[in-house]
Amino acid sequence: MKNISAITYKELLIYFSSPMAYIIAGVFFTLTGVFFVTSIEGAFAEASARALFSNATYFLMPLIPPLLTMRLLAEEQKLGTLELLLTSPIRDYEIVVAKFLASFIILLAMTLFTLFYMLLLFVYQANPDIGPMISTYVGFILYAMVALSIGLLASSLTTNQIVAASVGFGIIFLFTILQRINEVIDGPIATLIEHLSLLSHFESFSRGVMDTKDIAYFIVMTATFLFLTIRSLESRRWR
Fold this sequence. Notes:
By secondary structure, this protein is mainly α. Helix content is 82%, strand content 0%.
């Protein structure tokens, strides 16, 4: 835990000292603000929260996590500092978990700032149902965990940050549009695609239902991509 805490702290300092992090946050807040404004026209508070985060998962999740994670391992490889980490008394999983936690803390903080929009709903709409709002936030955070783990895997595969962001975007976007693909096909393949789709598992949360199978899906997906990232780092020892 000491190594994980130290690396996480170092990465958070880098985030807060980098203008890129503030640009990403600005894009996030601008677009979520637009989604919020367009969602409140004649809608109930619960519907507004659902519309806000449904748009955010579709349009922001393929974009923001890859931008947050693109430098975490790619830059270390380019500068040659990753080799120093790998030869130090730090385990591969500690490096991956620490960098994941740093990016997750940043995205979580950005997400919690959107509670301001929910506060406005409580002020201007009478007696909103808080249950669906909470479940929507939980689902969005779980969704973000998967997206960040995918972005981190992409960052481990290249020394180029732009390539890492592009690969991460492509993989996340693919898992995002699987539900749309599922709408035009039938049979066992359609069932498999539905089980893999990020959006199909998020929809239950947006309706106010926190199903254990959906929670398990997000956790397993996150763990799978983090495991693949660890294996990617381990493969460097043999190059």
